[in-house]
Amino acid sequence: MSAGVRGRAPRVERVGSTRLRILSMVLVAVVLAGMVWSRLAYWQIAKHGQLASQAQAQYREVGTLPAVRGAIFDRHLTQLVVNTTVYSAFVSPDQVPTTERDRVTNGLVTVLAADRAKLTTTLASGAKFAYVARRLPKDKADQLRALKLPGVGLEEETQRSYLPGITSGTTLASNLLGFVNYNGDGQYGLEAKYQTVLAGTPGYISSYRDLANREIVLGSHTHQDPVNGSDLVLSLDANIQYASEQALADGVKKYHAESGSVLIMDPTTGGIVAWADYPSYNANDFTHTDTASFKDNVASYVYEPGSVMKVVTLAGAINSGAIAPDTVINDPGYLNVGGYRISDWDHRNHGNINYTYVLEHSLNVGAMKAMQAEGHDAFYSYLQGFGLTKPSGIDVGGETCLLPAAADKLADSQYATAAFGQGIDVNMVQMLAAVNVIANGGKYAPPHVMERVGTKVNPLLLQPQRQVITPPTAAKMTAMMESVVQHGSGWTSRVKGFELDQAGKTGTSQIPVNGQYTQDVWASFVGFLPAQHPKFTMLVVVRKPHVDGSDRDWTLNDGYFTAAPIWQKIAQAMVVDWHITPDPR
Which residue numbers in the chain have pLDDT < 50? Predict the structure, then answer.
């Protein structure tokens, strides 16, 4: 019996062991199934988007549909910038048979003047693609097509082309317009400022293809049309721009100056009619241009305006009732202010004179006494009103300003020198807009270049202009500026037929270096005509003129001797081109 008991025990152990093994196998199966399902869930759910994108990338073909960059027009809808088709030549070395390499090399060297040694290396590389030459004109592309060289192709591209300037080395209004690089990005000037609206938005077209590059008929297609860039219409006049560049270049050369700039404004709207710099550059050949040439000296350069500032000083003093054009003062030739002796440019005792005489002969003492008569606070308030304590806001990139200190931070001597335009910095846009207040009946016209983007009018043209001085004050200052041309320092600016109907003011200021004034100067002239109903306001600035003999007499570099004759030449051209006639008197 005991033996029987001993015989059943092993069977119980075997049955239990079998059940354990079965249970273990089930558990393993469950774990394995869980792992499989979790991995399936991971790849099909969590990684679905990534896998789908990778699969699409293997079979999807996407083509870019480029947007056409907007054109730029002047006020008469003369196109200043055009889009032209150019061609880039490329070669696929792996598609050029060994026996054809010499013919391909000779053809590319003959038509494109390509580097033979470099071509030989490229063709031997077996690469799939290499550019040989970029942005070829159509005639070169046609010559290359005619050779039917194996493995050689042409790729169409769009390039901006700018109108020729006064010489073969320049293009019209290049410092204002800027240029577009080979990536289609606007650089400097209006091309950079309005990059977004000019460039537009490219579209695309996509489809699916199999490994043999055959289109999959049931595959999805996506198509997005490009949005072409908007056109710009400027206030610029291409004819006046050309005349300005020509006269400016002649003047800078004649007076051996470092550089010069011209800015012309429509008095009633603030629209810029001409924006010229010399030296300038060729925007069609920007890759071979020193980057220093790209800088614009009209808005991106500050200078001390000198006696042109007396227009602002006297206008403010007249408007505040502190002085009148016929108010008599005594001018001994100097004035002691804040511990400094500040003199007239000629160091002469002028005795008893009125403020019209002060402006005619550009006397510093008279300007300082006018400022003192109205007081520091009123003087500073008029600087603000004339737009000289903040950027002009001109719609061109890169405006540079060096603004004056707060009113309570300026010393007496700083107020004194600011009254005649030294120790205060402006850019040309600020200064011209300030003087234009006189031409515009006392109102400030915000300066701008862009008139319309597409069909949308510049919002500045729809805003009311602020009144800086009263119309009677503007009329008095106009008469004083007429007297400058008729009897004073502005005589070299007289335009034939407008000798009695032209307003102007000269300016000359010494250029400081390391805190010390040098004998180099900024010479300038600002004016408008006809005086009573102006058609334009113009500012000319010549930097560091060196007239023959000026080493003995620095006044030869003065604004009346260098800048005013350039102003006169441009104004004469405008009178003819715009058919301007003097006002009957």
Answer: 1-13, 217-219
